[in-house]
Design goal:
Order of helices and strands: EHEEHEEEEE
Strand content: over 45%
Strand order of the largest sheet: 1-8-7-6-5-4-3-2
Distance between the termini: 11 Å
Oligomer: single chain
Number of helices: 2
Structural class: mainly beta
Length: 162
Amino acid sequence: SINALALANGDVTLMYDRDLFNSKMSISFLGGYNFNAHMGGLNMFIADSKDKAKKKYDAGFGINFMPRNTKRVQYFVGLLGKYMSYDYDEVVSISNNQKIYQRSNGYQLAIMISNGWIFRVSPNFNFKVFGAFGAPINSTELRPEYRGVPKVYLGYCFGYRF
């Protein structure tokens, strides 16, 4: 499936979900590449901490539990691990009151609790709406006031089932 909300941020994010144990559990994989010249709203703390920050890509893995199998509509709750890579300009020196920059790489690794709904519109087409909320567990250093700020990831996906 493709995450339509990520498209609004300049990301092309594809997700693969695989049902397990008679649709009581599922595993999810995601991968995305960003075509936007700047960080989006959900990454505003990084954009404010780093000069000319630009998201490159993200990748993730999740495991979900579905308490009831209703065939057409299912609620799920699970864990999502997400890695995001970005570039930014880092000040390496100051000469004659001018900053000298060097392009550097940054990253953020987060573990989040996700929950949402899967709507199986037909045997081969589905929608997935979810939100994930958690904490970065490892990240390139941000401004001190942004340490401990939670990570949020949202999705409205539509795709093909096979």
